[in-house]
Automatic annotation (TrEMBL):
This is Glycine/betaine ABC transporter. It is found in: Cell membrane. Keywords: Cell membrane, Membrane, Signal, Transport. GO terms for biological process: choline transport; glycine betaine transport. Residues 49-191, 210-310 form the ABC-type glycine betaine transport system substrate-binding domain. Residues 1-22 form the signal peptide. InterPro entries: ABC_Gly_betaine_transp_sub-bd. Pfam families: OpuAC. The lineage of its organism: Bacteria, Bacillati, Bacillota, Bacilli, Bacillales. It comes from Terrihalobacillus insolitus.
Length: 313
């Protein structure tokens, strides 16, 4: 087994997030729409107040995340974000700050992505991104180390066929609110035998062959990795899941320290890491489409675009 070389790579992301279900951004409320119609000086004053109230700060997540890099790019690309800063910490800290702001109906701008339970729990919206810094709709890809097809043809076939919908991932995350991810994944597999049968059709069982799946510490990826784990284990594999920073994920697969990953967000979020190691791994294509990243605000905030934010004084 290509067991991950922890000490040599030296970065471990052992976060335990509570992402349970995803959704898309909500439409503006009637009050928000009416306020926006006023336009003029009132709108300018409102956005200026919002920007100063949050001290020209975007509440971000982990420094190594792709969305963190994209937000840094936005701070450069948008002239009106001159003087703004991104405050990085952790996904859990961002979610706490978002919840506190909403409880007090205060302004906040966070880095967000979907699928994510925050859109189901709160009334949120993505800010429009006229410059396209955050890209459009994303997909999640499957990558494997070179030689996996020859070494583990059965696992390769299953991973190559693995494809599901955002609603499938959402159902696992929702179940994982009350039970652990492996049990939630087993529940999904039990309820979706036709889909699993398509992945495993004609695949011969193995006898305890070890395989390591590398993932990022988002619960979206914990969902896909655990479902793949259950399916591979049913075929006789001994599966290890290794959560790491995104850059390490690509390095692990490129260098053969991990066997496969169902976690890369493309074409924007993990583009830099993908390009750094391109050609050193095999890309099996999309396993989920319809993902998105961007700047997110509560719907009660009277702004709709990144360009509505005011430069720092």
């Amino acid at each position: 087994m290509f067991q991950f070389k922890w000490k040599r790579l030296g970065i471990v992301a052992g976060l335990s997030l509570s992402l349970v279900v995803a959704g898309c951004g909500q439409e503006d409320t009637d009050d928000t729409a009416n306020n926006a119609d006023n336009g003029g000086d009132d709108q300018t004053e409102t956005t200026a107040n919002v920007s100063s109230e949050i001290e020209y700060t975007i509440t971000g997540i982990e420094p190594g995340a792709g969305i963190t890099q994209a937000t840094d790019n936005a701070l450069t690309e948008y002239e009106n974000l001159s003087g703004w800063e991104q405050e990085t910490s952790s996904t859990a800290a961002m979610l706490t700050a978002l919840g506190d702001a909403i409880d007090n109906e205060e302004p906040i701008v966070v880095t967000g992505w979907s699928p994510h339970y925050m859109f189901a729990k709160y009334d949120l919206k993505y800010l429009e991104d006229p410059e396209g810094v955050f890209g459009g709709v994303e997909y999640i890809a499957t990558i494997v180390r070179k030689g996996l097809k020859e070494d583990m043809p059965e696992a390769y076939t299953i991973l190559d066929r693995f494809q599901w919908e955002p609603a499938d991932m959402e159902s696992v995350m929702l179940a994982a609110q009350d039970i652990d991810f492996e049990k939630a994944a087993q529940q999904w597999v039990d309820e979706n035998q036709e889909t699993v049968a398509e992945w495993t059709d004609g695949v011969e069982p193995v006898d305890g062959t070890p395989i390591e799946l590398v993932l990022t510490p988002w619960d979206t990826e914990r969902s896909s990795a655990n479902v793949a784990k259950v399916v591979l284990e049913q075929q006789g594999y001994d599966v290890t899941l290794t959560p790491v920073d995104p850059s390490v994920m690509f390095q692990a697969i490129a260098e053969g320290d991990g066997d496969a990953s169902l976690a890369p967000w493309m074409p924007q979020t993990h583009a830099a890491f993908y390009e750094e190691y391109e050609g050193q791994f095999e890309d099996l294509g999309k396993n989920l489409t319809g993902a998105k990243i961007g700047l997110v605000v509560p719907s009660y905030m009277d702004i709709d675009s990144i360009e509505d934010l005011e430069p720092a004084e």
